[in-house]
Amino acid sequence: MQASTPCGENRTVKTSRLLLRRMTIEDDEAVCSLRCNPEVFYWRIPVHTTEQATQWLKDRLADPASLSYSVRVLQNREEALDAKVIGFVGATHLPEVGYMYDPSVWGNGYATEALRAWIEMYWQNWPDGHPSIAKDEERRCLTAVTGQEDGAASRRVLKKCGFKHVRSHVEQEDRGDVKLDVWRLDGPAG
User: Fold this and answer.
1) From CA 152, how far away is CA 168, in angstroms rounded?
2) Helix (H, G, I), strand (E, B), or coil: what is residue 171?
3) Measured distance CA(188)–CA(127) in Å, rounded
4) What digits encode the pLDDT tens for the residues 53-101?
């Protein structure tokens, strides 16, 4: 799989099956569909309104430490800009990465394929880490967090992409205590 080098504001990355495009305000309906779905946001409180989802999207777009991409399935190896967004991958705040997908596409390997392509693109463009990350030790790695109780599929995705489990902890969420696993992937300079 070869990630293309992104250029300009509408950066894209292609894999054999997927098109990743830098997230834009036009992704608001897809963001709302996923962030409002408790099946997708099982360990965090999902948003409940389109306005909340749109505000979350605007906040991410304004944050220089956010490098999120929409994910679409390529049709006949053609660019699928008009195709339905099936999910998102990347960083909502570097160095932490994440992903979310429509449950109808779970189990097809899209999360692993998209995350691998995103990681390759990230390190190609910022081999010493993104300049928005202040601490040197954080700049040389990527991190991820999964829920311990219902995060088995996400843990498998992270392991396939080279992440290593570094610690577990309990975080206080609106729903109560949530057991979380923290993962780390060292970069080429790390």
Assistant:
1) 14
2) strand
3) 7
4) 888 889 989 998 899 999 999 876 656 656 889 999 999 889 999 999 9
**pLDDT, tens digit (0-9, with 9 covering 90-100), for 117-147:** 999 999 988 888 888 887 777 888 999 988 7
Strands (E), 61-175: 67-73, 85-93, 96-101, 141-147, 164-173
What confidence score (pLDDT) does residue 190 get?
46
Q: How far apart are CA 144 and CA 115, in angstroms?
A: 11
Beta-sheet strands, E only, within 39-140 = 67-73, 85-93, 96-101
Token pair of 72 as six digits: 């679409």
Of 67, 90, 73, 190, nearest to 144 by C-alpha is: 90
Does residue 69 contact residue 90 with C-beta atoms inside 8 Å?
A: yes
Handedness of CA 45, 18, 109, 160 (dihedral sign): negative
For 140-153, b/e burial (b = at least 16 CB within 10 A) is bbbbbbbbeeebee
